Amino acid sequence: MESSGTARKGRPRSEKSRKAILNATNKLLLQTSVQELSIESIAKKAKVGKTTIYRWWPNKTAVVMDALASQPGMQTPLPTASSHAEAIIMQLDKLIRLLDSQNGQTIAQLFSEAQADAESQKIFNDNLLEPLMDAIKYSLHEGQISGEFRDDLEESLVVDLLCGPIFFRLMAHPRDLNDDFRNAYPREAIQYILR
Length: 195
Description:
Layout: H1 15-29, H2 39-46, H3 50-56, H4 60-70, H5 84-99, H6 102-114, H7 118-146, H8 155-172, H9 179-190
């Protein structure tokens, strides 16, 4: 992000172009994998130059992450929960629903591709994993303070234990990431951290 006192060189960014790029990316992801997607194909579909894309994003992973985030419902806050356990159950349910969709395939492909590139991995972590983990950590911390959860739990480890099986299914057994799993897993998993 630029400081307000620094003038930007070159042509200014166009919000219209940004939206066209995000829309083009989402449309292309319905037809092709993340690995096959290219900045060139996005530029062609959006009717912009590659330099326009690079004015907004450092690489393809960043474009795809923003395109996913721009979809309706991706940033929808969860309803108010009656307890911290219920909040975590709702967060896990939302994650399973997300990953058991067309977007889940895209996220799995991004996850795989990000393993070979540190910048892409940072973008993936910062834009998808960290917000998810932070929300669960917050509910866990508040539940520990209120006495709902055991106070001897290490937050990062608990988040890994809660989310790990979901991501394992996404990568190894995506067909098993379904309604049956969504209906059973969050409520079963929460039992291990309740007081």
